[in-house]
Design goal:
homodimer, alpha/beta, 44% helix, 3 domains, Rossmann fold, six-stranded parallel β-sheet, 434 Repressor (Amino-terminal Domain), four-stranded parallel β-sheet, Lambda_DNA-bd_dom_sf (chains A, B), DNA-binding transcription factor activity (chains A, B), DNA-binding
Chain lengths: 343, 343
DNA sequence: TGTTTAACTGTAACCGGTTACAGTTAACTG
DNA sequence: CAGTTAACTGTAACCGGTTACAGTTAAACA
């Protein structure tokens, strides 16, 4: 592979001039530029990215940490982010946090060693303080996705989860339901707490008393949805609708209800959260809260690129959730059988 | 950030010695090693990966091209590959081919410029000859995933699609079906052709004549499944079962059948291909052919790492498909209504 | 005792770019 | 016409590692 010195010799100019041509510096005469380009072509010259990075101290790489490379949630986010970053001529390195704190730290350190130009992080488990310290210490721009840390608000791309919880619950209230169960995600995660807060606000606004026995904390997994339903049953809770903390748990709930002979949505309405691809295919198609993960990806990438350029006038990026009505919810008036009791 | 020279000064040794310690070279006395390690610790030294790459001409990076970062198919593959590669202390750079030939070429060139140590490619559109030429020209190891090119067999991690097509069809034959439609993927793709070949072999083996009018070429998309069904209908084809070229088309077919009032599996059995996550959740849960994409990822990564180390004694990695029986197929004896006719 | 050899360490030349700085024109200004 | 400036080009130092080679020491061997 040809080097810049070979090209410079071939074209009869200095290496500096070749470098200028390669980097589009304007102080090169048209004649020289053409001669150099010709030589480059002829020798099949490709700049060595290692040398370039060493000299400029920029890797032209943006690092990304996601919880899971295979989950339905992150796919669209990565897709759009990669698109944006590649269009800018840079590379995206993705690593997975695998949903353990240790792995999350690892993944971040891994990317830092790699001297990425910026980092886009989706961290589930790392506590706020640790992230704040991380941002303070590292010299490179760091973007947080799907998480709002007040101290770093202008580095966060997030969704208003409180509003999402409100929206889901409000939808059921509007349908006439008043006994509404809520299966939350792990409450050490802020998104789960926020959704719960939205659930409570919706009830309050509608004048429906908050009933602790209708709320179960779970784990965002399908199996967790089924388990949570089991706990509600043991509590002898009565309800005609369920707000799932995410789509997977909602699907778990529906499957478990079905096994118990309860028909959805006729006897019990269920709302999900995330609008994962599968939700549209599931039967009954899931009514859910859409989280614009793809926009997260695109905006996080754009923000990262901007910060790489040295910009600092960043505005907080906060998205509003939307309700997607499908077939898993029904007005209480249309409930066919008597109210559901799992006792 | 401390450099190797600062560390060497601090420890009172030469840069060569520090480098030896960092790289685990054995010709260093224990005392010196400890002194150097202490200095490294004290100064918070981290080797500069650019400089290292420049000097060694290795990037410690493996590049991967997939059709789509967000699809259900590639997720598990990336997940496992990343795991394996990170455990080896290297990085994975993933780029997406976005299902156009132009983008596929782009993605590959992008990674080559980056001077990855090896490439793992899932190419849908690039013709065999171009890939062969690519492998001949580039000095680095290239692994092909989900594709078998005879000339490069020892570089391919693939599935026996012919066997898969056979398996799916055989399953339906075993259930007593004889009028079995097949909706193929685009026949310029070898996997679609192979599955079709398997379909034919199964019929032949069972003594059922091959009927061209039962085969429709489509596009691997859900909408394509519905369209294909439409074409069968217009042909006035009669059948009691369908072999889908992949899960998405199978789901498209089932949804379309349902809209026409045909019940699945009672009136028509449908088999998918891929065993995408969604298939288990779909109602009826899809009977399908499992493609071990996660193993593709892991094995491709391992193979890539091995080739990086200079190994050359590679054996071809060919997986056998498995049938996953779920609820979308039923014995013909149990067909409730009369045979299905869409006329 | 002289010679070989193993164990360890250092010097300096690379790897292939970028870029500060200096130098050379030629046009332009006062 | 001297002085300034814009346009262009080259030299060489630098980025921060790796590693060939040479040098030193001390133990092992003949």
């Amino acid at each position: 592979m040809a080097t810049i010195r070979e090209v410079s010799k071939h074209a009869g100019v200095s290496v500096a001039t070749v470098s200028r041509v390669v980097n589009g510096n304007k102080w090169v005469s048209e004649a020289t530029r053409l001669r150099v380009l010709e030589s480059m072509e002829e020798l099949g010259y490709e700049p060595n990215s290692f040398a370039r990075s060493l000299a400029t101290n920029r890797s032209n790489t943006i690092g990304m940490v996601v919880g899971d490379l295979s989950g339905p949630f992150f796919g669209p986010m990565m897709q759009r982010a990669e698109q944006v970053i590649r269009d800018a001529g840079k590379h995206l390195i993705i690593t997975s946090g695998h949903s353990t704190l240790e792995e999350e730290r690892d993944a971040v350190q891994f990317l830092l060693k790699r001297r990425c130009d910026a980092l886009i992080l989706h961290l589930d488990l790392m506590p706020d303080e640790e992230i704040i310290e991380l941002c303070d210490k590292s010299p490179l721009p760091i973007i947080l996705v799907n998480r709002l840390i007040p101290e770093l608000a202008d580095r966060c791309v997030s969704l208003d989860n409180e509003a999402g919880g409100y929206l889901a619950t409000r939808h059921l209230l509007d349908l006439g339901h008043t006994r509404i169960a809520h299966i939350t995600g792990p409450l050490y995660k802020s998104d789960a707490r926020d959704r719960l807060a939205g659930y409570r606000r919706a009830l309050e606004t509608a004048g429906v008393p908050y009933d602790e026995s209708l709320v179960v904390e779970s784990d965002y997994l399908e199996s967790g949805g089924a388990q949570a339903l089991d706990r509600l049953k043991r509590r002898e809770a009565e309800f005609t609708a369920v707000v799932g903390g995410n789509d997977l748990m909602a699907i778990g709930v529906i499957n478990a209800l079905r096994q118990q002979g309860v028909r959805v949505p006729e006897q019990c309405s269920v709302v999900g959260y995330d609008d994962v691809v599968m939700s549209a295919y599931f039967v009954p198609a899931l009514t859910t809260v859409r989280v614009p993960v793809d926009d997260f990806g695109a905006d996080a990438a754009r923000l990262a690129l901007k910060l790489c350029e040295g910009a600092s006038d960043t505005a907080q990026l906060r998205f509003q959730p939307e309700l997607v009505e499908r077939q898993s919810t029904l007005a209480k008036g249309e409930v066919m059988a008597e109210n559901l009791s799992l006792v």
